[in-house]
Design a protein that fits this description.
Helices cover 42% and strands 19% of the residues. The chain has 15 helices and 12 strands. The chain has helices at residues 15-23, 50-59, 88-95, 122-147, 149-153, 157-174, 189-194, 219-231, 240-247, 251-261, 267-279, 303-310, 312-316, 326-331, 335-340, and strands at residues 4-8, 41-46, 63-65, 68-73, 100-106, 203-208, 234-238, 281-287, 291-298, 318-324, 345-347, 358-363. The protein has a 6-stranded mixed β-sheet with strand order 2-4-1-5-6-7, sandwiched between helices. A 3-stranded mixed β-sheet has the order 3-9-8, with helices on both faces. Strand 6 (203-208), helix 8 (219-231) and strand 7 (234-238) form a beta-alpha-beta unit. The longest helix has 26 residues, at 122-147. It is flat and about 65 Å long. 37% of the residues are buried.
Length: 365
């Protein structure tokens, strides 16, 4: 399991440049005019994780298979999108399909790149898109409420629950707050998810800065970080231009290039980590002579659910999991060393998988 993140933003903020860099492809046309991305481009990237390479070396794995993450480059949005302005309807339909939103904000000055509003203000840009998404959610909820009137009158439990949740959402949206600001009880989580509200999706603000500001950011990205903290969202600083340059280099050259710029790592790594934290995701590993592989699960997943990510039958027929903590696996030179030191544990259905666990599942066929 990976997760699908939609890259959104106003036209000409660097969405397609970032997408090209992330997916190491020029599939998304990056050009200095609005709506250069007409169809959503979908790209998969490997999730960088140095732990996987370490495990592969110890296990002498023939193949190394990282976890995958999907990015969707979505057409630029303008004011009035909720009413179909620009490519609004398409934008809104595409964004419903993603798990999270990476909202690219222009935090750089460049006279050669036009801004659709004729100014550089990332906070106003963020508010423009948030407003359009909130308006779209309000319209969607109002239609749904009309459609379930009869069922509510008839006492349909599901409809009554939906109505209650939709009224909660309307109250927040009319007060200018996104749906993700509402605390939802565990028993309502499934019904809430089925509403498919755009503003319920977690948001990661991506501050696109000039090349010489990629390390520390600037005053504009600091404003965005403050806004994100107030909203309970996340933010990350990236220079799309630098990421694009890195994507064209071999790994060793890329490392030297980053060193020259005084950067510890590529922005992609920071972006993925922030995305993982935002969605509450973590990684476990399987390792052996054939392959070393990383798997993505939600934090708090139990062993059978983790097994199900590999194959549904593993979850259905789950018997037990043989578990070695990553640090023990490395320190003791692999599976046999961990076994000999008594560091391999046998865990049952109630075991909550930890980030970095090296697992082997036993199941009935």
């Amino acid at each position: 399991m990976g997760f699908k993140t939609g890259i959104v933003g106003l036209p000409n903020v660097g969405k397609s440049t970032l997408f090209n860099a992330l997916t190491r492809t020029a599939a998304a046309q990056a050009a200095n005019f609005p709506f250069c991305t007409i169809e959503p481009n979908v790209g998969e990237v490997a999730v960088p994780d140095p732990r996987l390479d370490q495990l592969a070396e110890i296990a002498a794995s023939k193949q190394v298979i990282p976890a995958r993450m999907t990015f969707v480059d979505i057409a630029g949005l303008v004011k009035g999108a909720s009413k179909g302005e620009g490519l609004g309807n398409q934008f809104l339909a595409n964004i419903r399909e993603v798990d999270a939103i990476a909202h690219v904000l222009r935090c750089f000055e460049d006279g050669d790149v036009t801004h659709v509003e004729g100014r550089v203000d990332p906070i106003e840009d963020a508010e423009t898109i948030e407003t359009e998404l909130m308006l779209a959610d309000l319209e969607s909820i109002e239609k749904r409420l009309q459609n379930i009137v009869r069922k509510v009158r008839g006492g349909d439990k599901e409809a009554v629950q939906q109505e209650r949740l939709m009224k909660l959402a309307i109250e927040a949206l009319e007060a200018g707050r996104p749906a993700r600001s509402i605390e939802i009880a565990a028993e309502d989580a499934k019904a809430w998810g089925m509403l498919q509200l755009l503003t319920a999706k977690p948001v990661l603000y991506v501050c696109n800065v000039a090349e010489d500001e990629a390390g520390e950011g600037n005053a504009q990205s600091a404003r965005v970080a403050k806004m994100a903290a107030e909203q309970g969202a996340a933010s990350v600083v990236i220079s799309a231009k630098i990421e694009e340059e890195i994507s064209q280099l071999e790994p060793e050259e890329a490392e030297m290039f980053l060193e020259e710029l005084g950067l510890a790592e590529a922005g992609l790594s920071r972006l993925i980590r922030a995305g993982y934290d935002l969605l509450g995701l973590q990684t476990y590993f399987t390792a052996g002579p054939k392959e070393a592989r990383a798997w993505t699960i939600r934090a708090g997943s139990l062993a059978p659910q983790a097994a199900g990510v590999i194959h549904g039958d593993f979850e259905k027929g789950f018997i037990r999991a043989e578990t070695i903590a990553y640090d023990d696996y490395v320190a003791l030179g692999g599976e046999q060393g961990a076994k000999d030191a008594g560091k391999m544990r046998v865990e049952g259905k109630g075991y909550e998988v930890k980030d970095g666990d090296v697992l082997h599942f036993l199941f009935s066929g």
